[in-house]
Amino acid sequence: MTEMTLRAEALTLGYGERRVIDDLSLALPAARMTTILGPNGCGKSTLLRAFARLIRPQAGVVTLCGEDIHGQDTRALARRIAILPQAPLAPEGISVGDLVKRGRAPWRGLLSPWSRADAEACAGALQAVGMTEHQERRLDELSGGQRQRAWLALVLAQGTPLLLLDEPTTWLDLTHQLEVLSLLRQRNRDAGTTVVSVLHDINLAARFSDHLILLGPGGLVAEGTPEVVVTTENLQRAFRLAARIQPDPVTDRPMVIPL
Amino acid sequence: MKRWILLALLFAVAVALSLLLGVRHLTPSDVWQAVTAPDPRNPAHVTLLTIRLPRLAGGLIAGAALGLAGTVMQSLTRNPLADPGILGVNAGAALAVVLGALLLGRADNGIVTVLAFPGAALASVAVFLPGGGLSGDAGPVRLTLAGAALNALLISAVSAIVQFRGEALDILRFWIAGSLASAAERPVAAMSLVALCGAVLALAIAPRLEVLSLGGSLARGLGTRPGIVQAQALLAVTALTGAAVAIAGPIGFLGLMVPPLARRVAGHSLRLELAASVALGAAILLLADTAGRLIFPPAEVRAGIMTALLGGPIFILIARRLKPGAQG
Amino acid sequence: MKRVIVLVALLVVATAASLLIGDVNLGLGALWQGVWGGDGPAALTIRVIRAPRVAVALGAGAALGLSGATLQTLLRNPLAAPDIMGFTSGAGLAILVAITVGLTLPLPLVSAAGGLVAAILVVALAHRPGRATPAATVVLVGLGIGFTTTAIGTFLMTRLPSAGATEAQRWLTGSLAARDWGHACQIWGIGAVLALLLALQVRGLGLLELGNDLAAGLGLRVERTRWMLAATAVALSAAGVAVAGPVPFVALMAGPLGTRMTGAQRPGTRLTSAAAAGAGVMLLADLVARAGIPGLQLPIGVMTGALGAPYLLWRLSREIERGEL
């Protein structure tokens, strides 16, 4: 298998005059779970959107396997990178099954019929998120946790080796946050999918991720394993937060206790 | 202060142009002589006394009334797109008149006068209820579209009735776009009394309307009863719009154009804004009417068409400036 | 499935009724003769007068319905129909201008040009650099374009001699009077091509419904698809206007009405039911407009205005209850 590594090279991002990310270079390790952390407004989502080619860099490039993603055919790229935005829109009255089917779009030609591979991918995705028995139900009848699982099923059905998620746990209660993150880790371990997400909760990120990217107001603060990144000094630099770090009694990963 | 002087100048120019320009141009000395020593054999004097002056009076009353109605409406709904024409109040008055003429078989001044008011009142209630205007926090989109819908409905009914009567298209045109051409035959004096009552009411409730514009619950906390103020404001709008329609037919977009200009002149006091609206409404309508007389002489373009030509682009200008948040 | 049959049956009954009812009411026998080439006066009435009119109503209604449903989905706003946003009045004004100055271009081209100009104006005026354009602003600016085109139309009308003004009034309200088989072929031919073009883009529309970001993530060229869909929708509404005039509210009502009747959810079936509903509304409105009050033939635009305005008011009050607008 070729190394599916997304890499940012001298990346500068912004909207009009306002620069959000300045001259950033880093790689998202393949087949790992990576989480982007940082305070509000530091450019976490912007960076993720750049990796998903949703915005064009003002300078620098994002490469996949060494090639600029903006030079590639958008449908071919959609077979390799999936993105779940923060607030996707649900068509009125759509059923879970129909929603998940739309995740197969990059695999279907203009007139090609619904294939067996498509059906299997959808069934597998619904199975993976535990929504098989709910596929006939309407999305707007579901609870918040179930709805988020349905959206996850859509991007899983896309069948990509890379999965980008913008704050997939926002609006969910703690149980459902754990559920979504466990699901993602399951996918990462079973299928070797590279999972990259933006999260707010440092402790959850440290617990579930192999690799952390910590952004601060001035750009990249640290990247590496949770043990390397979650330190008192880094938290002070990124969040201006005074905190003590202790090992999580359950997982032994670093845990933040604000002072 | 400078802006008040500009406004006074604009008003004076509008009045002067309306008296002097037309198919037959007059000179200021004609006007002076016609007033001081009228000569019934001098065609210039006759034109002035029997055509221009009544037309000026009609334009003053209708324009001032519509300007006031627009300012009251925009203040009541906090919607910069509110206007008696756009929201269907004009069309309601027009429909009532046309319907009355159909049922009673005559269309004299009495009918027009008596029917325009209930028509305007019904339409303003009809647009404010589904438009959410009375809850005091209707988004501009909702209220404006409710008005557009009501307007379309009423105009459909007007044109159906006019076609049913087999009358010439001309009457239809009058009831879709008003004009000052027949102001001499309209009950201008009676209507100016009604408009005056509306204006006094509007001035009286202005402070309470200002409080109301802070939002229903805050207004309640400040001791105002929103329901009553709203009812009074709608009554004022009805009196003003009904009077204007009885004189000039439905003239749209004046109420849209006047308030933002009035605010520039008067700042943020609603009473001063209302005062400025009187002069601005009259001036704009007179200018529109004069321009309509000059474009293709001897034919006339109706004042209502002139204001609509001007008002459409202004509507767009205001619509695109609205903050997205205000559209929720 | 059952509801689809109801909709189809309704269309068939409306078609038959439109063929039979009018100044002279005909029987089923005459319909039979008319279809199979009989040559009595009744058969001729059907073949020469009523059938083309019915065909135009069905075609124009379907085109307007497709156009409305596409734009409503694209802008995610139930009010974003070509008639509310001034596209149809732009197309109507272009035709009026062409007739006034004696231009001899084919009317569908003129009307398409007018609709496109109106649409481009709406988009350009609603757009403010560096900011996202809310759908509500687009709708309001479109309403303003509608006001302006109507004002210009009324202004031009005052310059016309009385006979011309009557004809112009038709073009400003929408009418199906005196339509012949040429008009029917025109709307069905152009409509079929545009509908095919739309069918090829239905999947893209389904992805756009999920939001621009997710659609892009799923491999869609978002901007290009949006522009293509919008252009197809504008062309469809212009094709309808070219044969029937700017009939108000059909495009607005067709989408929600069709979805409600068939319960369709996928974009493809939703568009199909919008087309069917548009055709049905148009046909019934025309029938009532010409036969509802004996001895009086109203233009269809007056009737859809009277039907559509209460619908719009109801829709607005419902959105208020649900807190959506």
TrEMBL record, chain A:
Topological relation to the membrane, as annotated: Peripheral membrane protein
Main location per the UniProt record: membrane
Keyword field: ATP-binding, Cell membrane, Ion transport, Iron, Iron transport, Membrane, Nucleotide-binding, Transport
UniProt keyword annotation of Magnesium present: no
Record GO cellular component, one term: plasma membrane
MF annotations from Gene Ontology: ATP binding; ATP hydrolysis activity
Matching Pfam families: ABC_tran
Subcellular location(s) per record: Cell membrane
SUPFAM superfamilies for this protein: P-loop containing nucleoside triphosphate hydrolases
Domain ABC transporter as annotated: residue spans: 6-242
The keyword Transmembrane helix appears for this protein: no
Highest rank taxon of the organism: Bacteria
SMART domains: AAA
A biological process from GO: iron ion transport
UniProt record similarity statement: Belongs to the ABC transporter superfamily.
Protein name: Iron complex transport system ATP-binding protein
Source species: Faunimonas pinastri
TrEMBL record, chain B:
Keyword Transport: yes
Pfam family of the protein (one): FecCD
Subcellular location: Cell membrane
Organism of derivation: Faunimonas pinastri
GO biological process, one term: siderophore-iron import into cell
UniProt record similarity statement: Belongs to the binding-protein-dependent transport system permease family. FecCD subfamily.
GO cellular component entries: plasma membrane
GO molecular function, one term: transmembrane transporter activity
Keywords attached to this entry: Cell membrane, Membrane, Transmembrane, Transmembrane helix, Transport
Annotated protein name in UniProt: Iron complex transport system permease protein
Record-annotated membrane-spanning stretches: 57-73, 85-104, 110-131, 143-164, 188-206, 227-254, 274-296, 303-322
Record bears the keyword Transferase: no
Membrane topology qualifier: Multi-pass membrane protein
TrEMBL record, chain C:
Membrane-crossing residue ranges in chain numbering: 54-75, 84-103, 109-126, 138-161, 181-200, 227-251, 296-314
Keyword Iron among UniProt keywords: no
GO biological process: siderophore-iron import into cell
Entry's Gene Ontology cellular component terms: plasma membrane
Matches recorded under CDD domains: TM_ABC_iron-siderophores_like
Statement: the UniProt record of this protein carries the keyword Membrane: yes
One Pfam match: FecCD
Membrane topology: Multi-pass membrane protein
Source organism of this protein record: Faunimonas pinastri
Family affiliation: Belongs to the binding-protein-dependent transport system permease family. FecCD subfamily.
Listed PANTHER family: FERRIC ENTEROBACTIN TRANSPORT SYSTEM PERMEASE PROTEIN, FERRIC ENTEROBACTIN TRANSPORT SYSTEM PERMEASE PROTEIN FEPG
MF annotations from Gene Ontology: transmembrane transporter activity
Name of the protein described by the UniProt record: Iron complex transport system permease protein
Keywords of this entry: Cell membrane, Membrane, Transmembrane, Transmembrane helix, Transport
Compartmental location: Cell membrane
Principal subcellular localisation of the protein: membrane
